[in-house]
Each structure stands twice: as C-alpha cells, then as structure tokens.
Amino acid sequence: MNETISETAGKTRALVSLTLWILAAPFVAFSLAAQQRGPLPPPPAGTQPATPPQTAAGPVHPAASKSDSNITREPPALPVEEIVQRFGARELEFKKERDNYTYTQTFIIQTLDEDGRPDGEHRMTSDILFTPEGKRYEKVISAPPPTLQRISLSQQDMDDLEHVQPFVLTTDELPKYDVKYVGREQLDEISTYVFDVGPKKIEKNQRYFQGRIWVDDKDLEIVKSDGKAVPDIVKKGNENFFPRFETFRENIEGHYWFPTYTRADDELRFSTGSVHIRMTVRYANYKRFGATIKIGTPVEVKPDKP
After folding, report:
1. What pLDDT, on the 0 to 100 scale, is given for residue 8?
2. What global pTM score does this model have?
C-alpha cells in the first residue's frame, strides 16, 4: 500500500492494489469437486456476507494457529533439508497443475475509520476462464463503483496478489530464500511442519514473501502462509507499505492444495498518520480446464452382417 504526498494540495493518498491470478494453458474443460478439506478459518466479521467454504475438519482458529505455544519442537521424521527439497518439488507440481484450472475470484478492500467501521470500499468479482484456444482471461461479473477515498491501486500490490499472497515455494524459488525449521503444529486434523521463510537478499524490482509457512507432513505441500510482501518502499514523497496477510489452502484434487482464502487486517503507519485497512480475497468454484485422452492400438470394427 502506497502513500503519495502531493506537492500542490499537501494531502496524502495511500495506494493499495490487487490483481487477478492470470495464467495460461490449452486444455478441454471438465469439472471437479472443490473445497474438500483444508485449514480454512471463518472470515473476519463484516468483511463479506457470503458463507465461507467449509472443510471436513471444520475451521481452524487463527489465533491458535498463530501462537508459538502450539508448536512442538520435536524433530521432523525426515532430515530438514530433504523435507524442504521434497516440498519444493511438490509445489512445482502444484504450480503446473494450477495452470489447468478456472475459478471465481472475489476481492474486497476496505478502509476503516477510528471506530472500525468501513469508510471506503472497492470490490470486484471475476471469473478466470479460458478461450477455446486455451488463453486464460478475466471476465468481470460484478464491480460496483468503488467508494475508496484514502486508498487506490498500485502496481506493487498487483504483483503481490499474483505472486506473493498465493505463495508457492517451488524448487526454482528455493535458492532465493532462507528456510528455517521451527517445529510441528496440528491444524485440526492436519499435521504440519512449520518453517520460517525470508529472502536471502533483496534484488531491485523484485517482490518476496517473508513470514511463516505450514507444510502438510503427508502431502508435503504448503497449506497455510502468514506473513507479508517485502520490501516496503519508501522514497522521497512516496511511502509504500504492505499489510500482513494470511492465505489458506484447501485440498481440491488429489494431493494438491489450492489457495481459497486470503485475508489482511492491518494498520499501515505512514509518516502522516495510520490507515487501517481490511482485505479479503476468495478463490472458489475451481474447475479443471483440461482432459487427458489415452489413445490405444487401433482396432478394426467390422459392420454387423445383415
């Protein structure tokens, strides 16, 4: 979120931005059941009237999940380096699989006044679809006029929504990060390994995740992340800060865990004052756009005799 100081009016604006997950892959569409299980908590009160997707295990209480007191320090079943390499490979598989899906995305951004009441909002619901040629595109199905006065959209936050908030730590990305084993934690029925993750170095014009991830100890795939996009950007006359967020995944197909819900409720402290923001992003109605057709040995079929 970015605050720009105007030289003419002397007023400030905070810039917030989001983007849609835009990926591409040519396939033939068919549907699969979604939202089977996963550590998905209920949304913050008042952020969205829709009922959140439920899981087979029920909601995970976010306050308990954040607490280090619930993390045991027992060693993992496998060497830490082996776990990291294996979940990196699984994440790479997942990233490729995700390219085959359409879904509906709804995001809401609000600014809150001193009493915690929304005083501005921007919401949009879109279907992420494929053309017959297999090119992914966005179809906006609902976009009421925004009422935001203190914030608007910025490019860095657009990049964060696409790459950082639905955080995927693949084998290709692992060399960029320090990954530290913290312990084990039970998220309802899901037993997880917990890791702290941060960039080894910050390169110009690159965005990174810094925070904590929870990795399913059976599927070896991220099921939850809690942190923020870095770096914050502060330049003369321009302060660009980014909120802390949580992203929750659910088991959509097989061993693959898909992001279904991101939330942020944070206070961004600009030099001219703080701005309380709340954001939710929902990914729903996952449908696989693709089919594998097996072609066997041709067999001659003779017509029936009259």
Report:
1. 36
2. 0.74
